[in-house]
Design brief:
The structure holds 2 protein chains of 2 kinds. Helices cover 35% and strands 29% of the residues of chain A. Chain A is an alpha/beta fold. Chain A has one domain: 3-Layer(aba) Sandwich (Rossmann fold). In chain A, the strands form 2 sheets. Chain A has a 6-stranded mixed sheet with strand order 6-7-8-3-9-10, sandwiched between helices. A 4-stranded antiparallel sheet of chain A has the order 2-1-4-5, covered by helices on one side. Chain A is globular and about 55 Å long. Chain B is of the alpha+beta class. Chain B folds into 2 domains: 195 residues, no CATH class; 121 residues. Chain B has 13 helices and 14 strands. In chain B, strands 3-4-9-6-8-7 form a 6-stranded mixed barrel. A two-stranded antiparallel ribbon of chain B has the order 2-10. The two termini of chain B are 29 Å apart. The chains are: A alpha/beta, B alpha+beta. At the A-B interface, helix 2 and helix 3 of A face helix 1, helix 10, helix 11 and helix 13 of B.
């Protein structure tokens, strides 16, 4: 399969030379298009750092991140913003919807940035709300939604612009296990239906069971790459 | 519509803080509008006073007469000049004048005076002279049955020479041709006060002055009255171009009363400086609000950056929020300021003691009710809001998504 994400000798160190924390240490990784991959490991193993580097939210200390053959480290701030807008969807642990916008407006936001026409936006918002099981909740502001509903809206926001890859950093961490499993099942279904690549981090055993590939991280290094 | 919607909702999200900031900017708007109204109103009143009193809004002289007035620097009163003036739609009225220095004698006393020869009919509609006759009547340009012309004298001349209406007045001067000029006139009116412009002046009918000073058909100036002082420069330029190659100099009131105009400008500049300090203080408060708002929303900006918002859009959002709040503040300020300035302009503030400005009583301080009085403060407030929101806007745009997402 075609390699969508490729990291080469990827390092991310924090602190000074004297007191240096190696969050990621020479990580080589390839993820193909359409995969449903979980990055797992204990807290501090480097899961979020890896996702941040893949998503272009952080800069590596050394090494390379290529998305679809493009080295994202060479991009300027605006180029990187545009790249993220068009190719990457994010789902965050704390949902991170824009509080002054309704669920539908949050979903519409990225399409507005992309310059999608109003009628097409409305239609896509309706479709995606239905797909994530949030029909009739589009007008509600984040504060009026439950945690599970907010995370579904966040997934819808990440999906609506049809990105190549969705990065989800512990998407179920703030949800109860039933809601978390429901969300993961929904993400897996969307992965199968739409062939969107999902990469998510978790340390929840029940969630890991649903992944087709598990990348085990420990102390910033890949300990095991398990394909099921 | 994305950014305006976000901006508006962000303003409404912290209502109490937005209201306080709006009150601060609205107060700034009120203060600026009122100050502009006061400054332009009081100067406008002063300008109207002296232009309508005697100088007119524009004057025409021989070349550099205004800077170095000499008797011989006269202009031929002719149809060409008057045709230009008659044709201009913005000219309300104009009058020709002659100026000369003389020695006045009466009741065994003598005093130096300034002679002003005036066009009896036109002067009535060009200056306030006709309204300033305190004793006697406004004169005519015909000799009386004894062969004497009438004169009107300023209050100072009447006082020095102990003259009353009906008394004889002797004037001695030098004619434009170098001859000795002397003649007898009958005092028909006493004009002005001890502080007014007319104090030491003797007014003669134009034809009498021309005869006395050996200046047949000649005058020193045309004084021109417009509906208001605003268009003086433009109209002066129009007339000057129409009288090109005539050797005449057309001067607006700003050049006629150059000292007053320069000191007025200096005073206005000083006033701008004071207002600038007030605006600065207001906007330090606004800056504080914007910085707080940006710091509080660091995580949100991080999310916006992460999902693909360009840095410049975030800067623009911050600027838009502050400018929207500024516009809203100005709208509130306008609602309060409008009736206040209307009252100040049409009713005014009665001074405890009337001031005497060149013999004209000035007893009510009035403002100006014009579009710039409301528009300039609006532009100042909105532009200042935009400027103070740029640094926090840039700061918000520079937020690294990963750092912002880790903030609380």
């Amino acid at each position: 399969m075609e390699s969508l994400i490729k990291t080469t000798q990827l390092c991310r160190y924090f602190g000074t030379e004297a007191i240096q924390v190696k969050a990621l240490d020479h990580v080589d990784l390839e993820i193909s298009s359409g995969e449903f991959t979980a990055i797992v490991g204990p807290s501090g193993s480097g899961k979020s750092t890896l996702l941040n580097l893949i998503g272009g939210l952080d800069n590596p200390t050394s090494g390379k991140v290529e998305l679809g053959g493009t080295d994202i480290a060479k991009m300027t701030g605006t180029e990187l913003s545009n790249f993220r807008r068009d190719h990457i969807g994010f789902v965050f642990q704390a949902y991170n919807l824009i509080p002054v916008l309704s669920a539908a407006e949050n979903i519409e936001y990225v399409m507005l940035l992309q310059g999608v026409a109003a009628t097409e936006r409305k239609q896509k918002v309706e479709e995606i709300l239905e797909k994530v099981g949030m029909q009739g909740l589009g007008d509600r502001r984040p504060a009026e939604l439950s945690g599970g509903q907010q995370q579904r809206a966040a997934v819808a926001r990440a999906l609506v612009s049809k990105p190549d890859i969705i990065l989800a950093d512990e998407p179920t961490a703030n949800l109860d296990s039933k809601t978390g499993i429901g969300l993961l099942d929904m993400m897996k279904q969307l992965n199968e239906e739409l062939n969107v690549t999902f990469v998510f981090s978790t340390h929840d055993e029940k969630i890991m069971e649903r992944a087709r590939r598990l990348i085990h991280l420990a102390d910033g290094e890949i300990e095991e790459d398990e394909i099921r | 519509m994305l950014l305006p919607t976000l901006a508006l909702r962000n303003i409404l999200r912290q209502r109490r803080r937005s209201i306080l900031t709006a009150l601060s900017m609205g107060g700034g708007y009120l203060l600026l509008s009122f100050s502009f109204s006061l400054v332009y109103g009081s100067y406008g009143n002063l300008i109207d006073m002296f232009t309508q009193d005697h100088t007119g809004h524009i004057q025409i002289h021989f070349d550099n007469y205004l800077k170095k007035p000499k008797l011989y620097k006269s202009i031929q009163a002719n149809d060409e000049v008057e045709a230009v003036l008659d044709k201009h739609a913005e000219i309300v009225s104009y009058a020709a004048r002659i100026h000369a220095a003389a020695l006045a004698y009466g009741n065994n006393k003598s005093a130096p005076v300034s002679i002003v020869g005036i066009d009896v009919e036109r002067e009535k509609t060009t200056s306030m002279l006709v309204k300033k006759v305190k004793q006697g009547t406004f004169f005519s340009n015909v000799m009386n049955e004894d062969g004497y012309y009438s004169a009107m004298i300023g209050y100072g001349v009447a006082n020095s020479l102990r003259l009353k209406t009906g008394n004889e007045l002797v004037l001695i001067s030098q004619g434009a041709d170098g001859s000795i000029a002397n003649d007898i006139y009958i005092v028909q009116g006493i004009v002005g006060t001890m502080t007014s412009w007319e104090k030491n002046r003797v007014f003669l009918p134009l034809n009498a002055a021309q005869e006395f000073l050996s200046m047949p058909g000649k005058v020193h100036e045309y004084s021109i009255l417009l509906p208001s002082s605003d268009a003086a420069r433009e109209v002066a330029e129009d007339i000057q171009s129409a009288l090109a190659n005539s050797g005449l100099k057309v001067s607006p009131w700003q050049e006629i009363e150059e000292t007053f105009y320069k000191s007025m400008q200096a005073d206005i500049q000083g006033n701008y400086f004071s207002l600038g300090i007030i605006v600065f203080i207001v906007f330090i408060g606004v800056l504080n609000t914007v910085v707080m708002s940006v710091l509080e929303r660091t995580r949100e900006f991080g999310v916006m950056r992460a999902i693909g918002t360009n840095p410049w859009r975030i800067t623009l959002l911050i600027i838009l929020e502050t400018c929207t709040l500024a516009l809203f503040s100005c709208a509130i300020g306008f609602v309060v300021t409008l009736p206040l300035i209307a009252w100040f302009t049409f009713e005014g503030i009665q001074l405890a003691q009337s001031l005497d400005i060149g013999g004209i009583p000035y007893d009510t301080l009035k403002g100006e009710f014009t579009l710039p009085v409301f528009i300039i403060p609006l532009l100042v407030i909105v532009a200042s809001a935009a400027v103070v929101s740029i640094p926090p806007g840039i700061r918000a745009a520079r937020i690294t998504p990963v750092e912002a997402l880790g903030s609380h």
